[in-house]
Description:
By secondary structure, the chain is an all-alpha fold.
Amino acid sequence: MKKILLWLAALMLLGFCMMLMTKIPALGLSEAGFCGKCHAMDYQVSTYLHSSHAREANCGDCHDPHGLVTGSVYAAYTGSRDVYRVVTNTTPAEIRATEMSKKILQENCLRCHSDIMRDVGDTRKNGGVYCFQCHQGIVHPK
């Protein structure tokens, strides 16, 4: 039993380390080149590459939490989900942000644009909207 628990712990540690690999910049797992390998993301990658954000941020900068562990877990989850959808041919015709994704996008808008947002504040408060609802056309027009 002890041997099984040791193997299980080793596998869990290996899995955790592999999740953390999603945040290693040299691997490029947050870059458009990696995200664009899936044909379902052609439109998103194309619009991103023609946006002002392409010079300053990669896909993960906007779409993943920035904490090492939270970002890695989220990237591993969404990446696994996307691979599953491609393999099972269940990719939605229109890719839309989930509620969790919207919150992450908003937090990343606030983090990167903190100089401007210091005066404006969180646009969601007091019945407001997410930043990207008004600034939708900046990266992905749809």
